[in-house]
Design brief:
Rossmann fold, single chain, 4-stranded antiparallel beta sheet, 118 residues, nucleotide-binding, alpha+beta, ATP-binding cassette domain-containing protein, binds magnesium ion, 4 strands, binds adenosine-5'-diphosphate
C-alpha cells in the first residue's frame, strides 16, 4: 500500500460550466482506512475515478506514495477499483472480486488468498 494525496484537484467535465470537483485537498496515510461520504453528485465517484485513472484531473496533482500519477495511464498506477453496481459478477463473493485482478496479473491462487487476508 502507499499514501495518497490530492493536491488542489479539480475536474470540469467537457461541456460543463461548473466543476464536478473543486480544490480537493486530501492526504490519506499508508494503511489508513478512509470512506468518502456525501450527498449524490458531490464528486465522490469522480474523485475515485481520478485516483484510479479513467478520469483525468483538469487541474491539480494526485500522488500515490511519492509518485505524481496525475497524467499516468490507469494500467500504470497499480491500483484497483470496484464499482458499486453493474460491473460485479453476481456469482462471486467480495473476496472473489478482489482476487480477480490478482489472478489476471498472474498471482498464484494461494498467494492471492494471502494478499487478500486483512
Ligand atoms: N461523465 C460525466 N459527465 C458529465 N458530468 C458528470 C459525469 N459524471 C458525473 N458528472 C457530474 O459531476 C458531479 C459529480 O458526480 P459524481 O462524482 O458522480 O458524484 P457522487 O459520486 O458523489 O454522487 C455531478 O454533478 C454529476 O452530475
Ligand atoms: Mg458515486
Amino acid at each position: 500500500m502507499a499514501s495518497i494525496a490530492f493536491d488542489q484537484v479539480e475536474l470540469t467535465y467537457p461541456g460543463s460550466t461548473t466543476a464536478a470537483v473543486k480544490d480537493l485537498g486530501l492526504e490519506i496515510e499508508d494503511g489508513e482506512f478512509m470512506v468518502p461520504v456525501g450527498p449524490a453528485g458531490c464528486g465522490k465517484s469522480t474523485s475515485l475515478r481520478m485516483l484510479a485513472g479513467p478520469e483525468e484531473a483538469t487541474n491539480g496533482r494526485i500522488l500515490i506514495g511519492a509518485e505524481d500519477v496525475t497524467r499516468r495511464a490507469p494500467e500504470d498506477r497499480d491500483i484497483a477499483m470496484l464499482f458499486q453496481n453493474y460491473a460485479l459478477y453476481p456469482h462471486m463473493r467480495v473476496a472473489d472480486h478482489m482476487a480477480f485482478s490478482l489472478r489476471m496479473a498472474g498471482v498464484q491462487k494461494d498467494a492471492s488468498g494471502e494478499r487478500l487476508r486483512p
